[in-house]
Structures are given as structure tokens and as C-alpha cells.
Design a protein that fits this description.
heterodimer; A: 244 residues; alpha+beta; Fumarate Reductase Iron-sulfur Protein, Chain B, domain 2; 5-stranded mixed β-sheet; two-stranded antiparallel ribbon; 10 helices; 7 strands; 37% helix; B: 572 residues; alpha/beta; FAD/NAD(P)-binding domain; 4-stranded antiparallel β-sheet
């Protein structure tokens, strides 16, 4: 039977190293299957997060050959098998053990975002076209691959002052909800640092749900901020009012 | 003395953070209780995300004639009248309000042309009843509840597993568990507890369930003295993926059939016309699962042992719009474009109709202070659950459990906390590290799955079930000597040693109930007793822990009031 060579990071926050495992290949096998095979036959304490195994829960995120991916959706036969399949934990978050990282920061950012609140007197009728626009954002499975690939977090470590693509997507879903009555633009500008994003679209490229994160969420939100805070006529108007 | 353990104190402790646990937490919080929510995975990853097709609620947006009575009748008929009638009634009456509430918390359902919540057809529902969001309704539900919980500030303990309920005399006093991350132990003091931990799908090899579904809540409740009910009724979803092997068992939503998908055998025959000429593909899950199984067994299956499910007669854009995740799932995992050709599907272990016996109004178990809701509880679905009735179950009875648990906590004093129970729980967890001669848990789990899959599957008979009980007995001494390597830090093998104990215990309850029920009803099909037996229609099987011995009792099904009986007659 054909074998794949997996080179899996083993270690914790104090350090670690890649360890090689040979795994028999079954038809249609995904990287998560290979990791489970290692657990069952070679190393029962290999730490991996997973749940649905169907790309619907976003638990099994890791970096496969350097690219952030869901391991449950990454077919072994789609990777070059003449070289090891390198599986590493997400780089933008601290390692707990092996492929499991501490993603609790994301849950903290999420808490800053005011939840949906219906406009006063809202009638619960909505047009499918308006709903379509928001449903794209609500497809997000919180795999945090977009957070992992975003250079503001990955390379510049701006976790304190930046929300990251996942939470721009969530905010866009709320801001564009046809019946929502709360404004989150000041939060986006000040606390979530949306200005740091220079629209390189890396997040869009890795999104397993194919959400157009940059084009449909981040850019429209940036435009709202410009309209609200940097529109020259409004700024002039503010100056006059403020001076009088 | 709890000084040795990290200790948390709440009025209401909720175990499990899927739809039922989250809804219970929100309700208990609304009642003014201090609420703790413990979950095995990260928040928002529970199996509720895998519920795809929709949430059943008689809103009457599409089929104007729908009302709770029709929904009630469909649920009772789907469950072959073994359902707890009161639960079925409350469920049908309250589901529309729970859906509207979800919408007011920000959920966005697909719409009708007039702007209302759109509803689709589903197996066993006589009218278009399932409110949905494409084929990712469960994700919408869990995210909406999760966001609301975050907003209201629920205390969430993620990646923490409860291994034991603590008692003060008869009543519950808290729980003991470990953090997955560091393997540290923690104690939770609580006046009342809601179990919302889902089912036992991981005891079968071909399953749509994730690693979490190891019967934890049922085992915790059983060990604490609560009753289990109707454990023989395990739902095999008719359509799981069958090829390639790595994806075997992954769910293919019933919405494919709801949107017009047809089933064929390898001869191109639309075989459901034979098994249920009236409802065909939209028959109930038990019937469709048995039909596919029979086609395969009689040599008319596909190359990989399934049936063909075809939706490619619908326009490609429509399929991609209404079934986006199915489109991607097959394209990426099986190299099949479902807009161009059929899927290969076969039955997969999906859902547990049985579970912890609860009171209909309050979700209370027989143990004071202990409540259960969602898949972990029994009663609503009888012998077979209709698709779409699970999400509504989570909301209706999650809310009721949270309310009752908060009221219990509000009217009772703090229970006494017994440290010897904690020490015992700790010793049990540490034992696998101390053993040197036993085996790792994975082979034991493998053998358990083979036993349940081969001997306690879709079709059952007395010989197989007796053999299954014998095999389970052989697994017990192996599990008693299970060992594990490595440290306590995020060690999945160690976690499995404990999960296995729950699975083995509750698998035995399933096999015992299945052996006892000498008839075929809903999801329980006995080859040696192929027909309904009106005597068994009046009996629930009850499993209870009597001094450490698993004991089975028969109990009469609660009698339905005359007006509901009449309602069922009228709608026949």
C-alpha cells in the first residue's frame, strides 16, 4: 500500500520539533484522516482539534505545507507525495500542544462587538436580496484561517489593536443586516483598527467558505468609516459648527 | 475540602453548549441565575452545526393551513406513537415562537417572496414546515445563540470535560471535570444542573457524529441515579456519504430530498416507489434507511455499497444556491459534481431518540436538581425522529430546562459539597497513567464500534443482540486495564479512556433495550419480530442503576387525553 510521509510539529509552548510519521494512504484520504491514523496506531497523545470532519465547524485548522487550511478538507492526493507533508500549528496564535493553538484571543475580540439589535418599530419582513448579502458573512465557520494568514496579526502581532478579518466579517454581517439599528463604525475605526488592513486579500484566498472577505466585508466597512469620519464636507461642517 | 481543586460556583451549571445547552443558559440567565456553561470543544463547534436542513415549526408561511395540531400529528406518527404526547404537544405549540425569537436575536432565514421566513418540505412532515438557511441552518442557530450568550456575558468553560456529577444525598451538588488543555482538574459547585451533551453516535463506526458524542450526559445521569428511556431507538440517517472511505458516514442533508432529490438503485429503479408509494423519498428516515439497506443487501446497490441520490435534474444554479455545502462537500471530498451527476449514499448512525427520562413541562429527571434537554433527553421523538424536529427540540426544551433549573436553584439552599467524591473522581481519571500492562484505548474503541455496527445496527435479531451483550462484556475487563502514555496536557488518548467508559455503559443499555423489545417500531427493526405489536405500543423501556447493576423495567406510556386522540384520528 502506498504511504505518505507526514512531518508533524510535536511540542508545546516551551518548544518542539517536527516528527516524521509514515501513514498508509487510503482513497480519498484527507490530512485529518492521516493525523487520526497516527493517533490510533503510533502516537495516542498527538493533540489535534476536530469535530464535524465535514468542513462545517472550523475546528481542525492547521498549516499544511505552509498554507493555512482545514485538515478535514485537504486531500492527501492533492499534495505532492514525493516530499513530506508538513503539518504545523497556526502561526498567529500561541501553541498549546502539537497542532492545538490558543485561540482564546478571538473570543475576547468577539466580545467587543455589540450584538444585533433591531431598529425601533422594525417590521419582520425582509427581501431575499438583502438577506443574501448578509448570509454570505454568516457562512463563516470561525476556523480562524483568515486571522492566521493576516500579516497584521501573523507578522506584526497587532493583536491588541486589530480585530482581524473574522471580526470584520462578523461586524459586516451586523452592519448590513436589513433590520439592525446599531452603528459599529467608531468601534471598527478605533478599537478594531480596520485601518491597518491594506487589502492584500490573503484572508479571502484562504477562506474555506469562499467568503469575499476583502471585497464584500472589509472594503464596504472602510467606506462607511470614510463617509462618517473623513468626508471633507462633513469635516468642514463640523469645523464650522465647532468654531462657532 | 475543595482547596486542592480549582473551584467555580454557580446557581445553574449547564453541561454541553450545542443548541439545547446554549438556549438553556440564556433562559437561566434571563431568570436571574448565575450560570456556568461547560463544553468539551470550543464554543460554537457542537454538532448543532451539522444540522443542515432546517428547523420544524408550524409558522404557516408557505402552507397556510399548517398549525401545531398538524405538526403534533406528524411528530406522533413519525415516532410511531411511542412519543411522550405532552412533549410532542408543547414542542409543536412553542416551536414558532422559538423561531421568531431567534430571528429577533439576529438569525437570518431564507425568505418567501412576501418577505417572511421560507419553509421547505421534509420527510414525514405533511406540509412545508422547515425554516431554513440554505443547508446550514444549524450553524445559523448556534451562532445566533452563541453571540447572544457572549453579549449577555455567560461564564463559558471551553474545552472542559465533566466526568462525574456530585451529590448531596439525593440531589445534585455540582460536577467534577478536567481541562483538556493542561489536564488540570476542576470542581463546579451548583444548585442545579442541565445536561445537554447530545448522543452516542461515536459508538458506531459509520456515523455522522464527531468525537464528542460519547453518551457522556446519559452516563453521568445514569450514574447519578436518573432513569434512561427507550434506548433501543437509534436513528440511522438514510443518507451518509459512502465513498471514499475517509468520508464514510458524513451527513448528506435530507434537504437534498426536500428540494426534489430522487433515490435510485444501480438498475436505475426509483426504489422508494416500492417501499412507500405515497411519500417515496420523503418517507420517514427509518423507512428510507431500511429501504436503502435492503436494496444493497439484495444486490442492487452501487459499486461502493450505497444508493444513488440525484438532484442534477434541477438547474445547477438552484442546487448551488439551496445546497451550497453539499455541492462543496461532494466536489472536494468525493470528486463528484452534484449538479451534473448523482451522489452515492447509505445509512449512517445519526441520532439517539432514547436518553434521559424527563418530565415534559420542566425537563426534570428523577434526581432533584438535575435536568436534561436536546438529544440527551428522551420522549419527544418516540421511536423515530422527523428531520427538522431536532433543532426545534433544542430550543423548546432547552428553554424549559433552563427555566426550571433556575427556579429550582432560586428556591433551594446551597447543597453540601463532599470532597471524598472529588478525590474518587480524580483517582479514576489518573489510573490509566499508572497502569503498565493494559492496552491503549484506540483498539478497544475500534472493537466497540465493530460490535455495535455489526450486531446492533439497522436490522437486529435476538442472536445478534445476545452476542453483542457478550462482546460488550468482554470489552469491560479490557477497559478496566486501559493505559495511556504521555502527559496530561491535551492528550486525546487519555480523554478517550474516559469517553469509552461512557460509550460502553450506554451501548449496553442500547443492546439490552433492543433485546427486550420484541417488535419492530420506528428505528428499531427486529428481523425475528418484523411487525408492530400493539402491546409494545403501550410500553417504554426504562434503564436504571440499582445498586451498581443495570436493570431494565417496562413502564406504561403516559395516556393521551381524549381530545388529542381524537385529533390524531381526524388527521389520519
Amino acid at each position: 500500500m502506498a504511504e505518505a510521509l507526514l512531518r508533524v510539529f510535536r511540542g508545546d509552548k516551551s518548544g518542539g520539533k517536527p516528527v516524521d510519521y509514515k501513514v498508509p494512504i487510503a482513497p480519498g484520504m484527507v490530512v485529518l484522516d492521516a493525523l487520526h491514523s497516527i493517533q490510533a496506531h503510533q502516537s495516542p497523545d498527538l493533540a489535534v482539534r476536530w469535530n464535524c470532519k465535514a468542513a462545517k465547524c472550523g475546528s481542525c485548522s492547521a498549516e499544511v505545507n505552509g498554507r493555512p487550511r482545514l485538515t478535514c478538507k485537504t486531500r492527501v492526493d492533492s499534495l505532492p507525495l514525493d516530499q513530506p507533508i508538513v503539518v504545523s500549528p497556526l502561526k498567529a496564535f500561541p501553541v498549546i500542544k502539537d497542532l492545538v493553538t490558543d485561540v482564546s484571543w478571538n473570543y475576547k475580540v468577539n466580545r467587543k462587538i455589540p450584538a444585533f439589535q433591531a431598529r425601533k418599530g422594525a417590521e419582520w419582513k425582509m427581501d431575499q436580496r438583502d438577506v443574501d448579502r448578509v448570509q454570505e458573512f454568516r457562512k463563516c465557520i470561525e476556523c480562524f484561517l483568515c486571522q492566521d494568514v493576516c500579516h497584521v496579526l501573523r507578522d506584526h502581532d497587532k493583536h491588541e489593536s486589530f480585530g482581524g478579518p473574522r471580526f470584520f466579517v462578523r461586524t459586516a454581517g451586523l452592519e448590513m443586516h436589513p433590520l439592525d439599528g446599531v452603528s459599529r463604525t467608531a468601534l471598527l475605526k478605533n478599537e478594531m483598527g480596520i485601518g491597518y488592513c491594506n487589502i492584500t486579500k490573503c484572508c479571502t484566498e484562504v477562506c474555506p467558505e469562499e467568503i469575499h472577505i476583502t471585497d464584500n466585508a472589509i472594503i464596504p466597512l472602510k467606506e462607511r468609516i470614510v463617509d462618517e469620519f473623513y468626508d471633507p464636507i462633513t469635516m468642514l461642517f463640523r469645523k464650522i459648527i465647532g468654531a462657532s | 475540602m475543595t482547596a486542592n481543586y480549582e473551584t467555580h460556583e454557580h446557581d445553574v451549571l449547564i453541561i454541553g453548549a450545542g443548541g439545547a445547552g446554549l438556549r438553556a443558559a440564556l433562559e437561566a440567565l434571563a431568570q436571574g441565575a448565575r450560570v456556568g456553561l461547560v463544553c468539551k470543544s470550543l464554543l460554537g463547534k457542537a454538532h448543532t452545526v451539522m444540522a443542515e436542513g432546517g428547523i420544524a415549526a408550524a409558522m404557516g408561511n408557505v402552507d397556510k393551513s399548517d398549525d401545531w395540531r398538524t405538526h403534533f400529528g406528524d411528530t406522533m406518527r413519525g415516532g410511531k406513537f411511542l412519543n411522550n404526547w405532552r412533549m410532542a404537544q408543547l414542542h409543536a405549540q412553542e416551536a414558532p415562537d422559538r423561531v421568531r425569537e431567534l430571528e429577533q436575536w439576529g438569525a437570518l432565514f431564507d425568505r418567501t417572496p412576501t418577505g417572511d421566513i421560507l419553509q421547505r418540505a421534509f420527510g414525514g412532515h405533511t406540509l412545508k414546515r422547515l425554516c431554513h438557511v440554505g443547508d446550514r441552518t444549524g450553524l445559523e442557530l448556534i451562532r445566533t445563540l452563541q453571540d447572544r450568550g457572549v453579549e449577555l456575558g455567560i461564564d463559558v468553560f471551553m474545552e472542559c470535560t465533566i466526568t462525574r456529577l456530585l451529590k448531596d444525598g439525593d440531589r445534585v451538588s455540582g460536577a467534577f471535570g478536567y481541562w483538556r488543555e493542561q489536564g488540570r482538574f476542576a470542581a463546579f459547585k451548583a444548585k442545579s444542573i442541565v445536561i445537554a451533551t447530545g448522543g452516542i453516535g461515536k459508538a458506531w463506526r459509520v456515523t455522522s457524529n464527531s468525537w464528542e458524542y460519547t453518551a457522556d450526559g446519559m452516563a453521568l445521569a445514569y450514574e447519578a441515579g436518573a432513569e434512561l428511556m427507550d434506548m433501543e431507538f437509534v436513528q440511522f440517517h438514510p443518507t451518509g456519504m459512502v465513498w471514499p472511505p475517509g468520508v464514510q458516514g458524513i451527513l448528506v442533508t435530507e434537504a437534498v430530498r426536500g428540494e426534489g432529490g430522487l433515490l435510485f438503485n444501480k438498475l436505475g429503479e426509483r426504489f422508494m416507489e416500492k417501499y412507500d408509494p405515497k411519500k417515496k423519498e420523503l418517507s420517514t428516515r427509518d423507512v428510507v434507511a431500511r429501504s436503502i439497506y435492503t436494496e444493497v443487501k439484495e444486490g442492487r446497490g452501487t459499486e461502493h455499497g450505497g444508493a444513488f441520490l440525484d438532484i442534477s435534474h434541477k438547474p445547477a444554479d438552484y442546487v448551488k444556491k439551496k445546497l451550497p455545502s453539499m455541492y462543496h462537500q461532494f466536489k472536494e471530498l468525493a470528486d463528484v459534481d452534484i449538479t451534473k451527476g448523482p451522489m452515492e449514499v447509505g445509512p449512517t448512525c445519526h441520532y439517539m431518540m432514547g436518553g434521559i427520562r424527563v418530565e415534559a413541562e420542566t425537563a426534570a429527571t428523577t434526581v432533584p436538581g438535575l435536568y436534561a434537554a436536546g438529544e440527551a433527553a428522551a420522549g419527544l421523538h418516540g421511536s423515530n425522529r422527523l428531520g427538522g424536529n431536532s433543532l426545534s427540540d433544542l430550543l423548546v426544551f432547552g428553554r424549559r430546562a433552563g427555566k426550571a433549573a433556575a427556579e429550582f436553584a432560586g428556591s433551594s439552599s446551597a447543597p453540601k459539597f463532599d470532597s471524598s467524591q472529588l478525590e474518587q473522581a480524580e483517582r479514576e481519571m489518573l489510573a490509566p497513567f499508572e497502569r503498565t500492562d493494559g492496552e491503549f484505548p484506540y483498539p478497544i474503541h475500534h472493537d466497540l464500534q465493530e460490535t455495535m455496527g455489526n450486531l446492533v445496527g439497522i436490522f437486529r435479531n435476538e442472536d445478534d443482540l445476545k452476542k453483542a451483550l457478550g462482546e460488550l462484556d468482554k470489552l469491560k475487563p479490557r477497559l478496566a486495564k486501559v493505559r495511556i502514555d504521555g502527559s496530561r496536557m491535551f492528550n486525546p488518548g487519555w480523554h478517550l479512556t474516559r469517553d469509552l467508559k461512557n460509550m460502553l455503559l450506554i451501548s449496553e443499555a442500547v443492546a439490552r433495550c433492543a433485546l427486550a423489545r420484541k417488535e419492530s417500531r420506528g428505528a428499531h427493526s427486529r428481523i425475528d419480530f418484523p411487525n408492530y405489536d400493539p402491546v409494545w405500543e403501550k410500553k417504554n423501556n426504562i434503564i436504571v442503576n440499582e445498586g451498581g447493576t443495570m436493570t431494565l423495567h417496562e413502564r406504561p406510556v403516559p395516556e393521551m387525553p381524549a381530545e388529542l386522540k381524537q385529533l390524531l384520528e381526524e388527521k389520519k
